[in-house]
Specification:
Chain B: InterPro entries: Cyt_c_III_dom, Multihaem_cyt_sf, Multiheme_Cytochr_ET. By secondary structure, chain A is an all-alpha fold. The longest helix of chain A has 28 residues. The two termini of chain A are about 25 Å apart. Chain B has 17 helices and 4 strands. The longest helix of chain B is centred in the last third of the chain and has 33 residues. In chain B, the strands form 2 sheets. Chain B has a two-stranded antiparallel sheet with strand order 1-4. In chain B, strands 2-3 form a two-stranded antiparallel sheet. The radius of gyration of chain B is 29 Å and the shape is elongated. Chain B has 3 domains: about 80 residues, no CATH class; about 140 residues, no CATH class; about 55 residues, no CATH class. Chain B is mainly alpha-helical. Classes of the chains: A mainly alpha, B mainly alpha. The interface between A and B is medium-sized, with 31 and 34 residues.
């Protein structure tokens, strides 16, 4: 089940981003990853799937114990963040052990925890909401009476989409910093975190 | 004959003496060359003036909206400048009513309106699918009502202050232009009259187009049903040759900038002074409307991130190899 969920998640996350570039930059037929019509269609499908996935994510966290990983302990947070950043900037190069190894009750390090919470609570919801509004562009003008309201929705959507692209690039890279280059990618697929023997 | 028809018959009989009197006593309305517009509008200004077309069964109005005429490109013309020969009497003689007006009669000679390229427009019209398929049924007036015609460009260049006032907003121009097409293409009676064997089906022909209603509200039919390079907007293409590549509009060099937004873009460029001025003009077109500032910031941030991560990865690899040794 895990691999299928992970692959589904990958599809809903990556597809909108790839198509976004096709739609936003509308390259010529010879350079396009996809033709414009297909890009619009798959972007709409994948974006809607991402919205459904987000509902699943929120429901899953509300109904299970997984939400404990997103409970930030503010006391001493700055110090813990500093230790994590220091590890990425220097400790990692000297082969030092990870300052916050993944545990059953705390699978994220402080920087991961803060970033994931910001992304899932602050970045993805406006991205999905503006995307849904853009699926029905006439409704916004009818509801608000503002003729060019869609412009600002589109700019917001593009900005948040760009920020999520940045997050994904960093996320993919940071995932390579496990005890081996591939160990965290394997964890993403099978759901099991492994520690070195 | 039922009761209602009897009543109608009696009522008609009662009116007959006045009708006969009117027919017999033709009113001389004066020298046709000097009849003022107000004189014509005494009748033609009435909203109820009209007749039922025998062919289509539709009511055809003979009303001229004074307000619309006075804001049209032709507002400075007297009615009799075009409607010559016999309109000085009422009822107008059949010979006068059978007049065959032709825009080029006036428009080919006038130097003031040379910029509108009427002769080229006529050539384009003759090559259009309408004129090719139905040369006898189509004329300028099939689409254009000379009594309220207002060019998308507004009025002539020698009246910039009036031109500014009369200039059509984009959405207004879209509604105006599309209503011209829809008068026939949304009317089975009109289409069957022209093409009884295979009348074009407007909805089926646009099945492929996403967000139908949005497109019909925001762009003109002619923006796709003309060749991309056609700036005079009169060589309407057959359906199979119409533009159906989304990228024609949804790209940075959108053809809409040279068509629908031609005049509004010029105006807003003058006003806002940057290429992306369409964004300030109530228009958003995916792929066309871009905020160059946001794009640059995005690219810089993205490039910086990729370089930083690449450097970090290289550092890790180097450190790993050094530790291994």
């Amino acid at each position: 089940m895990g691999p299928y969920l992970a692959l589904g998640q990958c599809a809903t996350v990556f597809d909108p981003h790839l198509n976004r570039y096709v739609i936003h930059y509308t390259p010529g037929a010879d350079t396009a990853l996809l033709d414009f019509k297909t890009a619009i269609l798959t972007h709409n499908i994948a974006g809607t799937a991402l919205a459904a996935w987000y509902v699943f994510f929120v429901a899953g966290n509300l109904l299970s114990r997984n939400s404990i990983h997103y409970h930030i302990q503010f006391k001493g947070l700055i110090g813990r963040l500093f230790r994590q950043v220091k590890y990425y900037m220097s400790g990692m190069f000297r082969g030092e052990p990870h300052p916050f190894p993944a545990e059953d009750e705390n699978k994220f390090n402080p920087l991961q925890q803060l970033t994931y919470l910001s992304v899932m609570a602050g970045l993805i919801p406006p991205l999905i909401l503006t995307g849904l509004v853009l699926l029905f562009p006439l409704l916004l003008t009818e509801w608000t009476g503002i003729p060019n309201a869609i412009v600002w929705v589109a700019i917001t959507h593009t900005t948040f989409a760009f920020l999520s692209s940045l997050f994904i690039v960093m996320h993919i890279y940071i995932a390579s910093t496990g005890h081996t280059v591939w160990s965290n990618y394997r964890s993403m697929l099978n759901g099991w975190h492994t520690e070195p023997d | 004959m039922n009761r209602h028809n009897w009543l109608f018959f009696l009522f008609t009989l009662m009116l007959l003496p006045w009708a006969v009197a009117a027919e017999e006593v033709a009113v001389d309305t004066g020298d046709p060359e000097t009849i003022p517009n107000t004189h014509c509008l005494r009748c033609h200004g009435m909203g109820t003036l009209g007749y039922r077309d025998k062919l289509t069964g539709n009511l055809v109005t003979l009303q001229i909206s004074e307000a619309k005429y006075n804001t049209s490109n032709h507002r400075k013309l007297d009615c009799v400048a075009c409607h010559q020969g016999g309109f000085g009497t009422y009822p107008h003689p059949d010979k006068a009513k059978a007049e065959h007006l032709y825009c080029i009669d006036c428009h080919q000679q006038d130097e003031k309106i040379q910029p509108y390229h009427f002769l080229k427009i006529e050539d384009e019209f003759k090559r259009s699918v309408h004129a090719q398929k139905h040369p006898d049924e189509f004329s300028c007036f099939s689409c254009h009502n000379a009594h309220k015609f207002l060019s998308s460009r507004g009025v002539l260049d020698d009246e910039p202050e009036v031109g500014k006032h009369l200039h059509r907003e984009v959405l207004e121009a879209v509604t105006y232009a599309n209503n011209i097409c829809m008068r026939c293409h949304d009317s089975p009676v009109q289409l069957l009259g022209l093409d009884p064997d295979s009348p074009p089906n407007f909805l089926r022909a646009h099945d492929w187009l996403p967000n139908h209603e949005l497109h019909w509200r925001k762009v003109r039919c002619i923006d796709c049903h003309l060749a991309e390079s056609d700036k005079l907007l009169h060589e309407i293409l057959p359906a199979e040759k119409a533009l159906n590549d989304c990228r024609n509009c949804h790209s940075r060099n959108s053809m809409l900038l040279g068509k629908l937004y031609l005049y509004s873009t010029q105006q807003s460029r003058e006003k806002y002074g940057f290429v992306n001025s369409v964004i300030m003009n109530d228009a958003y077109v995916i792929g066309m409307t871009r905020n160059t500032f946001l794009e640059r910031i995005s690219l810089i941030m993205f490039g910086f991130t990729v370089v930083a991560l690449g450097a970090h990865g290289l550092g890790r690899w180097t450190a790993f190899r050094r530790r291994g040794k």
